[in-house]
Amino acid sequence: MKKSVVLLLILVISAYGYNRYLRIESINNKPKRNVARIENKAKEALLYCKKKKFDENCCILIDMSVHSGLNRLFIYDFNKNEVSRSMLVGHGCGNYPWSFDFSKDNPDFSNIDGSHCSSLGKYKIGKRAWSNWGINVKYVLHGLEKTNSNAQSRFIVFHSWEKVSDSEVYPDGTPEGWGCPTISNNNMKIVDSILQTKKKPVLMWIYNK
After folding, report:
1. Which pLDDT band, with edges at 50, 70 and 90, does 30 fall under?
2. What pLDDT shows up at residue 20?
3. Digit-coded pLDDT (tens) for 98-120
4. For the chain, what are the domain ranges?
5. Rounded to whole angstroms, how far apart are CA atoms 208 and 113?
6. pLDDT for the residue 28
7. Which residue from 208, 209, 148 is spatially nearest to 180, judged by alpha carbons?
8. Cross-sheet strand order for the sheet of 202-207
9. N or C, which end of the chain has less CB nearby within 10 Å?
């Protein structure tokens, strides 16, 4: 009996040590930010903002091809031609359970009501309003493309959530909701302070390639 207990403890300790090793290796080898990709998207975004008479000082880019435990929401400063801030952002859980990270590196996307998926495409960040989530602030999102045209009818908004971390959590992922782009409470305070100064609509572009 004692031998069995000792053997079990050895197996448990070995498994824990191996998992810890894998985690450290993952953290040390986390993917690097694709700066060129962001800059190319920003160039396209600026042209769009000029054409549609949106704010030409900044936009919000969200690259859903990036692991959800890494910063993938970028506030891009058109004047300085650089990312001024980056942060985590959650996506929709789809068919997986809500508030976990099962699709952290391979999310599904949909424009269908009830899909619990995020929708790709360009959005106009609209009215600031009360939210039951996070710091009680949300921004209405107006989908500007066929891929996100149902944003309002699906109640897809930009808001904060206490489950979202202020900093990267890779190799873990960001908790997943029902399709809204969600950021941490502290980061929403920063973004909110920026958006409240804008007189023209700000572009949010969620993309995956």
Report:
1. confident
2. 42
3. 999 999 999 999 999 999 999 99
4. 1-30, 35-207
5. 20
6. 64
7. 148
8. 82-87, 73-77, 58-63, 202-207, 121-130, 137-143, 157-160, 182-183
9. N
Phi-psi category of residue 72: left, alpha or beta, with phi > 0 → left and psi -120 to 50 → alpha = alpha
- Name, in order, each residue with C-beta under 8 angstroms of 200's C-beta and a sequence gap of 6 or more: 53, 54, 55, 56
Is the model's pLDDT at 51 over the cut of 90? yes
192 has pLDDT over 50: yes
Is residue 10 classed exposed, middle or buried when 0-12, 13-18 and 19+ CB atoms within 10 A define those classes? Answer: exposed
- Give the range among 30-39, 96-105, 152-161, 180-189 with minimum mean pLDDT: 30-39
Q: Which of 190, 186, 195 is nearest to 165 (CA)?
A: 186
Cα 122 to chain center, whole Å?
Answer: 15
Mean pLDDT score of the chain = 91
Amino acid at position 187, single letter: N
Q: What CATH number belongs to 35-207?
A: 2.40.440.10
**Cα–chain-centroid distance for residue 121?**
14
Give the pLDDT confidence score for residue 9 in this predicted structure: 47
pTM above 0.90, yes or no: no
In the three-class reduction of DSSP (H, G, I as helix; E, B as strand; rest coil), residue 37 is classed as helix
**What is the distance between the alpha carbons of residues 16 and 109, in angstroms, rounded to a whole number?**
35
Q: Smallest Cα–Cα separation from 78: which of 47, 53, 51? A: 47
